[in-house]
C-alpha cells in the first residue's frame, strides 16, 4: 500500500514538474511570425523588400529584448512569385502552423486579395504593407466596417488618387490617363478621374489601358493626343512606364508625365535613363524630407549595416531611394505594429492582439509617420503621407526631389 | 491623317518583329513539319545576355555576335534533344511538349543566372531620340531599322532559297525528305541548319524587340512568340512572303483597332478579325493546302 502511495506521489510530482517545464518552454519559445511574398521571379523587388523590412524590425526588437520576454523569429518565409495560387498555398501552410501568431500580407493586391478570406476565417492578425487596393481591409467600402483582423499601413490607391487629383487640377484642364488593365489599374483610373472632377468639375479626363509587359503604347498615346490631353498620367509598374516614356519620345510627344508611385521605381529609371528627368510622381514622404528624423536615420543605419547599399537602398548612402519607402518600410511598420499589439495585449492570443491593435494610437512609423487604428478604420495611410516628387539630374545621377508636400 | 499614318507605321514596325519570328517558325516547319515553341526563351536569352555583356563593357558588335552564337547553339540542342527523338515515332506530337519544356528550362536558368528583375536594354544602332520627320510625322529611326533589317533578311532568305544549291536542297527536303535523302541530299544537316537559322532569327528578333521596349527580363519573349505564330498562320504556314504579310498585317490591325476602336480591346478585336480572315482564307494570305501522300 505504501509502495502504491509512493508511486502515485512520484507520478504527481513528475506530472507537475513536466507541466511546469512545458509552461516554461511555452513562455520562452520565440514569438513566431510568417510571411508569403514574391522572393524570386520578375516581381521580387516587392517580396524581397518585404522580407528585408521585416527582418530589420525583428532585429531591432530582439536587440531590445524581444516581446513578452521572448525572442522573435520570422519562422515561415515562403515564396509566391506574386502568383495568387501560390500565395494561397503558402498562407495555408502558415496558418496550419499553430506556432505562428501573426503574419505580414503578401505584396501587391493580387495575392493579398487571394488570401485575405482565409486569414479572416482564421482570426490571427495580418498586416498589409504594400497592396494598394482598399477592399483588402474595407471589403464593403471605406465607410463600412473593416475585416476584424486585417490592418494596413500600405500606400493606398485612394490616397494616391486624391493627391494626384489635387496636383493635376492645379495646372491642367485636360488629363490623359494610361493605366494597366488590371483591377489595380482600373481602380486607379476610376479614382483619379473622380478626384480630378471633384477638384475641377469642368476638367476633361480621357482614359486608356494597356496590358502589362506591352512593348509599345503608340495607340494609347495618339488617342490621348487626339483628345487634347495636356498631361499624361500613368498608373502601373516601372518597366511598363519605361515603355511609355520611350514611346512618348519616339512620337515626339512632349507632354508632362505624372504617375503613381510605380512610375519612379528602379526598373523605370534604369530603363529610360535621362529620359526620366522631369517626370513627376506621388510617393511617401518618408525619405523625401531632410534632415531625416532620428527614427528614420536609425532604420537606415541598421538597414545599411545589414544589407549595404543594395538595390532597394540605392547606391548613395546619404540619399536612399524614395521607392524604398513603399517596398521596404511598410513591412518594417507592419512588424512593429504586430509586435506592439502583442506587447500591449500581454499575450499572443489572436483576439487579444487584434483588440490591442484596434486601439493603436499614434504609433511612430516610417511609411506612415503616425499609425492609428479604430475598430471602424483599419487603413492607416492618408493622402497627407504623400508628396509629389520630380525626377531631377544631380551631377551625373538621377534623384527625386519633393516639389509639393 | 497623321493619326492614321502614325498607327500604320508603328504597326509595320511592330509587325516586322512578328514577321521575323514567323519566318523562324517557318524554317523548321519546312524541314520537319514542327515548330519550336521555345523560341521565346531564345529571344529572351539573346537579349538578356546582350544586356549583361554590354553592362560588363563588352563592345556592342562582339556582344551581338556572342548572343547570336549562343542562339545558334541552342538551335542545335533543340533539334537534337527535343525534335529528333520525337520524330522517330510517326505521328508523335512529343515535340510540342519538349520544345516548350526546353524553353521553360532556359527561362528558369536565365532567371537563376541573370536574376529576374527587368534590366535596361542598351540602344544598338539609334537612340530613342533619333527620328526623322515625314510630312510632319515623327518616325523613330529605331522603328525604321527594325523594318529595314526585317526586309533585308526576308529578301536574303528568299534569294537563298531560290538561287542557291543549298536553298534548292532545303526546298527539296521540304517537299519530300525521304526522296531528298535518296538523291544524296544531306537531310540531317539541312534539318539541323534550319533549327540553327530559326534560332538565329529568334535571337535577332529578341534584340530588335527589346530595343523597342527598353527593358528585358527572364519572362520576355513568350507573348511575342504567340503573336509570331499567329502571323505565320495568318500569312500562310510555310510561306516567307506570307510570314511578312502576316506579321505586318497583324501589327497594323492591332494598332488600328487600338487607335480607332479601343486600346482595351486591341488584342481581343484584332484576334476576332483574324478568326474571320482565317474562316474566309483557311490557308492564310499566301499559304497553300497541305497535300498528304497516301
Residue runs with pLDDT of under 50 for 5 or more positions of chain A: 16-25
Number of helices of chain A: 12
Secondary structure tally: strands of chain B: 4
Query: Based on CA inertia axes, which overall geometry of chain A fits?
Result: globular
Roughly how much helix do the residues of chain B carry, as a percent range? over 70%
Strand and helix map with partners:
The complex is a heterodimer of chains A (405) and B (294).
Chain A: H1 2-28, E1 31-37, H2 44-63, E2 72-79, H3 84-95, E3 100-104, H4 109-122, E4 126-128, E5 150-152, H5 157-169, E6 174-180, H6 183-199, E7 204-210, H7 218-226, E8 231-235, H8 238-250, E9 257-259, H9 266-272, E10 280-284, H10 294-307, H11 324-345, H12 350-358, E11 363-364, E12 370-371, E13 386-394, E14 397-404
Parallel strand pairs in A: 1-2, 1-3, 3-4, 4-5, 6-7, 6-8, 8-9, 9-10
Antiparallel strand pairs in A: 10-13, 11-12, 13-14
Chain B: H1 2-32, H2 39-55, H3 60-87, H4 94-114, E1 119-120, E2 131-134, E3 137-140, H5 141-163, H6 165-175, H7 177-182, H8 187-213, E4 215-216, H9 222-235, H10 240-261, H11 266-280
Helix pairs in contact in B: 1-5, 1-6, 1-8, 1-9, 1-10, 2-3, 2-4, 2-8, 3-4, 3-8, 5-6, 6-8, 9-10, 10-11
Describe the protein's architecture and organization.
The complex is a heterodimer of chains A (405) and B (294). With 405 residues, chain A is of the alpha/beta class. Chain A contains twelve helices and 14 strands. Chain B is mainly alpha-helical and 294 residues long. Chain B has one domain (10-228). Chain B has helices spanning 2-32, 39-55, 60-87, 94-114, 141-163, 165-175, 177-182, 187-213, 222-235, 240-261, 266-280; strands spanning 119-120, 131-134, 137-140, 215-216. In chain B, the strands form two sheets. A two-stranded antiparallel sheet of chain B has the order 1-4. A two-stranded antiparallel sheet of chain B has the order 2-3. In chain B, a hairpin with a 2-residue loop joins β2 and β3 (137-140). Chains A and B meet through β7, α7, α8 and α9 of A and α1, β1, α8 and α10 of B.
Amino acid at each position: 500500500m505504501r509502495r502504491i502511495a509512493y508511486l502515485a506521489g512520484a507520478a504527481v510530482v513528475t506530472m507537475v514538474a513536466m507541466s511546469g517545464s512545458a509552461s516554461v518552454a511555452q513562455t520562452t519559445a520565440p514569438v513566431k511570425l510568417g510571411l508569403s511574398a514574391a522572393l524570386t521571379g520578375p516581381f521580387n523587388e516587392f517580396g524581397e523588400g518585404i522580407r528585408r523590412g521585416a527582418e530589420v524590425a525583428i532585429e531591432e526588437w530582439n536587440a531590445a529584448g524581444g516581446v513578452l520576454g521572448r525572442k522573435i523569429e520570422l519562422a515561415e518565409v515562403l515564396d509566391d512569385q506574386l502568383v495568387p495560387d501560390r500565395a494561397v498555398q503558402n498562407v495555408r501552410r502558415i496558418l496550419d502552423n499553430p506556432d505562428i501568431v501573426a503574419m505580414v500580407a503578401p505584396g501587391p493586391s493580387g495575392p493579398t486579395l487571394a488570401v485575405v478570406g482565409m486569414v479572416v476565417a482564421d482570426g490571427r492578425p495580418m498586416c498589409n504593407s504594400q497592396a494598394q487596393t482598399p477592399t483588402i481591409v474595407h471589403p464593403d467600402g471605406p465607410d463600412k466596417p473593416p475585416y476584424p483582423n486585417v490592418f494596413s499601413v500600405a500606400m493606398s490607391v485612394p490616397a494616391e488618387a486624391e493627391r494626384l487629383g489635387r496636383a493635376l487640377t492645379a495646372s491642367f484642364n485636360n488629363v490623359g490617363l494610361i493605366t494597366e488593365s488590371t483591377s489595380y489599374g482600373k481602380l486607379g483610373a476610376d479614382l483619379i478621374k473622380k478626384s480630378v472632377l471633384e477638384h475641377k468639375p469642368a476638367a476633361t479626363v480621357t482614359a486608356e489601358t494597356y496590358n502589362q509587359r506591352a512593348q509599345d503604347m503608340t495607340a494609347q498615346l495618339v488617342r490621348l493626343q487626339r483628345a487634347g490631353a495636356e498631361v499624361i498620367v500613368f498608373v502601373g509598374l516601372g518597366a511598363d512606364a519605361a515603355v511609355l516614356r520611350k514611346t512618348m519620345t519616339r512620337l515626339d510627344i512632349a507632354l508632362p508625365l505624372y504617375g503613381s508611385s510605380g512610375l519612379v521605381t528602379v526598373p523605370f529609371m534604369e530603363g529610360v535613363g535621362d529620359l526620366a528627368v522631369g517626370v513627376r510622381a506621388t510617393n511617401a514622404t518618408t525619405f523625401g524630407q531632410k534632415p531625416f528624423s532620428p527614427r528614420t536615420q536609425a532604420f537606415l543605419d541598421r538597414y545599411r549595416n545589414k544589407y549595404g547599399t543594395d538595390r532597394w537602398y540605392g547606391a548613395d548612402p546619404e540619399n536612399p531611394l524614395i521607392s524604398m519607402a513603399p517596398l521596404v518600410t511598410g513591412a518594417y511598420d507592419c512588424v512593429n505594429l504586430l509586435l506592439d499589439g502583442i506587447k500591449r495585449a500581454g499575450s499572443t492570443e489572436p483576439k487579444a492582439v487584434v483588440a490591442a491593435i484596434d486601439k493603436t494610437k499614434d504609433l511612430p512609423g516610417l511609411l506612415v509617420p503616425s499609425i492609428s487604428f479604430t475598430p471602424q478604420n483599419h487603413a492607416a495611410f492618408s493622402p497627407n503621407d504623400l508628396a509629389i516628387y520630380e525626377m531631377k539630374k544631380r551631377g551625373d545621377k538621377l534623384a527625386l526631389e519633393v516639389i509639393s508636400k | 491623317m497623321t493619326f492614321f499614318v502614325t498607327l500604320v507605321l508603328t504597326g509595320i514596325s511592330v509587325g516586322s518583329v512578328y514577321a521575323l519570328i514567323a519566318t523562324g517558325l517557318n524554317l523548321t516547319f519546312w524541314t520537319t513539319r514542327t515548330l519550336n515553341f521555345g523560341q521565346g526563351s531564345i529571344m529572351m536569352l539573346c537579349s538578356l545576355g546582350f544586356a549583361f555583356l554590354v553592362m560588363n563593357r563588352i563592345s556592342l558588335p562582339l556582344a551581338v555576335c556572342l548572343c547570336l552564337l549562343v542562339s545558334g547553339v541552342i538551335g542545335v540542342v533543340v533539334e537534337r534533344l527535343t525534335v529528333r527523338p520525337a520524330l522517330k515515332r510517326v505521328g508523335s506530337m512529343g515535340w510540342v511538349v519538349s520544345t516548350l519544356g526546353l524553353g521553360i528550362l532556359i527561362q528558369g536558368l536565365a532567371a537563376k543566372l541573370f536574376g529576374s528583375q527587368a534590366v535596361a536594354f542598351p540602344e544598338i544602332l539609334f537612340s530613342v531620340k533619333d527620328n526623322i520627320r515625314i510630312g510632319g510625322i515623327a518616325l523613330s529611326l529605331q522603328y525604321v531599322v527594325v523594318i529595314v533589317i526585317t526586309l533585308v533578311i526576308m529578301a536574303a532568305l528568299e534569294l537563298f532559297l531560290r538561287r542557291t544549291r543549298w536553298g534548292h536542297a532545303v526546298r527539296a527536303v521540304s517537299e519530300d525528305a525521304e526522296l531528298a535523302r535518296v538523291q544524296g541530299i544531306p537531310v540531317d544537316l539541312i534539318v539541323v541548319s534550319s533549327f540553327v537559322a530559326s534560332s538565329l532569327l529568334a535571337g535577332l528578333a529578341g534584340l530588335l524587340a527589346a530595343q523597342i521596349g527598353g527593358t528585358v527580363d527572364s519572362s520576355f519573349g513568350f507573348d511575342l512568340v504567340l503573336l509570331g505564330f499567329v502571323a505565320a498562320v495568318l500569312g500562310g504556314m510555310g510561306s516567307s512572303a506570307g510570314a511578312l504579310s502576316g506579321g505586318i498585317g497583324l501589327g497594323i490591325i492591332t494598332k488600328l483597332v487600338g487607335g480607332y476602336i479601343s486600346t482595351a480591346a486591341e488584342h481581343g478585336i484584332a484576334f476576332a478579325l483574324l478568326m474571320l480572315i482565317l474562316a474566309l482564307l483557311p490557308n492564310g494570305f499566301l499559304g497553300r493546302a497541305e497535300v498528304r501522300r497516301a
